[in-house]
């Protein structure tokens, strides 16, 4: 690496007045090098930079066109919404004016339906009361019948003596044997 550096340094010290050579003085060569580099970049990069700027310009213009179309669409939607609002306000006014008579009609219908429901409930109540009365009467009848039956059984048991009891059992056994022979 030292040899390459030495060769540049030695080229810079050639004593020829009109010949080509390298200047190793950085402060003297920097503005020249920068102007050469900028000149080359401008010459060759001008087309690329122009294309990039044109593309950016086209994208901005298309974005502006799209925004304008969206704005027009939004304005149309706003107008439709305003027209709908006017229509709804007119309908609301109509309902308000017609609504009071409709409310009175509905109120009368509700009162009639309620009184009809009350009559039905009164009828159901009366039917339920009648049913409960019949059920209570039937329960009392059953209790009276059971008490009478128990009284009759008590009387019958007290009247039966063991001989009568033995004859009744024997007769029943005979009937059961006869029924068993018939079924065989």
UniProtKB/TrEMBL annotation:
Additional comments on file?
In plastids the F-type ATPase is also known as CF(1)CF(0).
Q: Which family does it belong to?
A: Belongs to the ATPase B chain family.
Record keywords, A-Z: ATP synthesis, CF(0), Chloroplast, Coiled coil, Hydrogen ion transport, Ion transport, Membrane, Plastid, Thylakoid, Transmembrane, Transmembrane helix, Transport
User: Where is it localised?
Assistant: Membrane; Plastid, Chloroplast thylakoid membrane
The cross-references to Pfam families, in alphabetical order and at most eight, read: ATP-synt_B (PF00430)
Q: Which segments of the protein form a coiled coil according to its record?
A: 64-98
| The name this protein goes by in its record | ATP synthase subunit b, chloroplastic
Cellular component, GO, one term: proton-transporting ATP synthase complex
Q: Which domain of life is it from?
A: Eukaryota
Principal cellular location given in the protein's record: membrane
User: What gene is this protein translated from?
Assistant: atpF
| Segments passing through the bilayer | 32-49
Gene Ontology MF terms: proton-transporting ATP synthase activity, rotational mechanism
Q: How does it sit in the membrane?
A: Single-pass membrane protein
Subunit info here reads: F-type ATPases have 2 components, F(1) - the catalytic core - and F(0) - the membrane proton channel. F(1) has five subunits: alpha(3), beta(3), gamma(1), delta(1), epsilon(1). F(0) has four main subunits: a(1), b(1), b'(1) and c(10-14). The alpha and beta chains form an alternating ring which encloses part of the gamma chain. F(1) is attached to F(0) by a central stalk formed by the gamma and epsilon chains, while a peripheral stalk is formed by the delta, b and b' chains.
Role description: F(1)F(0) ATP synthase produces ATP from ADP in the presence of a proton or sodium gradient. F-type ATPases consist of two structural domains, F(1) containing the extramembraneous catalytic core and F(0) containing the membrane proton channel, linked together by a central stalk and a peripheral stalk. During catalysis, ATP synthesis in the catalytic domain of F(1) is coupled via a rotary mechanism of the central stalk subunits to proton translocation.
Task: Give the species.
Answer: Ledebouria cordifolia
| CDD domains named in the record | ATP-synt_Fo_b
């Amino acid at each position: 690496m030292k040899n390459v550096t030495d060769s540049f340094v030695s080229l810079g010290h050639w004593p020829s007045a009109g010949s080509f050579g390298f200047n190793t003085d950085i402060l003297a060569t920097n503005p020249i090098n920068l102007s050469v580099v900028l000149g080359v970049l401008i010459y060759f990069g001008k087309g690329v930079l122009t294309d990039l700027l044109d593309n950016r310009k086209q994208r901005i213009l298309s974005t502006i066109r799209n925004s304008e179309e969206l704005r027009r669409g939004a304005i149309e939607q706003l107008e439709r919404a305003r027209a709908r609002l006017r229509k709804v306000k007119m309908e609301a006014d109509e309902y308000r004016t017609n609504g009071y008579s409709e409310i009175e009609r509905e109120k009368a219908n509700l009162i009639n339906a309620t009184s009809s429901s009350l009559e039905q409930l009164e009828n159901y109540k009366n039917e339920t009361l009648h049913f409960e009365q019949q059920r209570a009467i039937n329960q009392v009848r059953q209790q009276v019948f059971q008490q009478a039956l128990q009284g009759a059984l008590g009387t019958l048991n007290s009247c039966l003596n063991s001989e009568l009891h033995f004859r009744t059992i024997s007769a029943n056994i005979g009937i059961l044997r006869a029924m068993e022979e018939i079924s065989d």
